[in-house]
Amino acid sequence: MIINGKNPLSGEIKVSGAKNSAVALIPTAVLAKTKTVIYNVPEISDIEYLIQIMEMLNCKIEHKDETLYIDSSNLINKPIPEELSVQMRASYYYMGALLAKFHRVEISFPGGCNIGARPIYIHIKGFEELGAKVEIIKNRYIITAEKLVGKKIYFDFPSVGATINVMLAAMGAEGTTVIENAAMEPEIVNVASFLMNMGAKIRGAGTKKIEIEGNNNLDNGIIEVFPDRIEAGTYVIIGALLGSPLKINGVIKEHIEALLMKLKEIGVEYTLVKDSVIVNKCENIKPTNIKTLVFPGFPTDLQQPMTTLLTQAQGKSIVEETLYENRFQNTYDLNNMGALTSIISMSKLEIDGPRVLKGKNVIARDLRGGASLLIAGLIAEGVTKIDNCEVILRGYGDVVNKLNSAGAKIEIIE
Length: 414
Ligand code: EPU
Hints:
Elements: E1 2-4, E2 9-14, H1 19-28, E3 35-39, H2 45-56, E4 60-64, E5 67-71, H3 82-85, H4 93-102, E6 104-108, H5 121-129, E7 133-137, E8 140-144, E9 148-149, E10 152-154, H6 160-170, E11 173-174, E12 176-180, H7 186-197, E13 201-203, E14 209-213, E15 221-224, H8 229-242, E16 243-249, H9 257-265, E17 270-273, E18 276-279, E19 289-291, H10 303-310, E20 316-320, H11 330-336, E21 340-345, E22 348-352, E23 361-363, H12 367-379, E24 383-387, H13 390-393, H14 399-404, E25 409-411
Parallel strand pairs: 2-16, 3-15, 9-11, 10-12, 19-20, 23-24
Antiparallel strand pairs: 1-24, 1-25, 3-5, 4-5, 6-8, 7-8, 12-14, 13-14, 16-18, 17-18, 20-22, 21-22
The structure holds uridine-diphosphate-2(N-acetylglucosaminyl) butyric acid (EPU).
């Protein structure tokens, strides 16, 4: 990805459907007896791999514009091989979904960005509590259950993936499952709405306690993917650096409140109009401290984009990453471009600003780190070249066209 920096951005950018909702909604569709429709599906590579898995399981898929029409009438249960499972993190949602449907699932380990250890023992413990047996053979999970029985399950940590996965598995259980200390991210509400639309009874999605009644009669689900709160937040951050002004459309403000409050605190001016955020370049960004937390706290997925913003603040900021052990990889390249950041402990980064950034050759090592370099390239003097930019395209659909239509100069060369 080649970026010519320092172009002011104006006009409008529309936020796409949320990657982390869509990647859970597609596996959820296998729970329907016949047909489901998912609207507002983002144009990102993870979706293509999930469709390949659906087709392997004998589902018929029609992908028209941003809508997926799924027919799971002839669904079969097959092991999900490594070449598909490893393409993304979200392949693990087939564990819960197929376990509910067939009481057996065989799947190779999931993939995803290399941002830390990312264990899934909370998912596994949840399946076991419902009565499943989980074996690991080489690099495969084999999960079986004679029957699944609903139970009260307490999560050690409010994991997004485990909350969705156990909610899916609980659909195949007799009786009621209660998840305590569940994650509250909007993605969970999106998946629960889809299941309820198919006939499920779920109470409390979006709170710390979710009650799910088992139901193997789900069908005819229709759902719209929520707007992507991380994509929205990334464009708002870009607006704070280059907006003249930049209008970001299709935003659920409550989903990015932690970011909006932080931006207000550091002097960024924006206006909220209906589902849009209009943001102007901030000439005098104040330094601040940020700690990533589960929703509704400051999202880890916006930590790296925010780090680039803070390289332009008037003084020292501290960013504390509490979710992942390895989410500062972008800072090597930011420093190479002229930023002054230092990792002061395993989870803390100090950023000394303001610094003039200069275009350099850099590498996107993970999705949000790649976004942080893209933002750096947009504000840098000269030309920035980002290698391995495919990882950025995993989370930001049509990013080049969206930004270029607002005045950026970006191209992707093969
Ligand atoms: N964790 C455990 N044990 C578990 C599960 C999670 O220790 O069994 C820990 C993880 O190691 C991690 C933390 O809990 O430190 C967060 O994990 P969580 O399960 O909540 O996240 P996830 O389901 O793996 C999703 C998104 C991530 C996003 C997180 C947090 C998907 C496919 N991924 O991951 O998205 O960072 O929630 O909001 O939905 C991204 O989009 O760039 C991305 C990494």
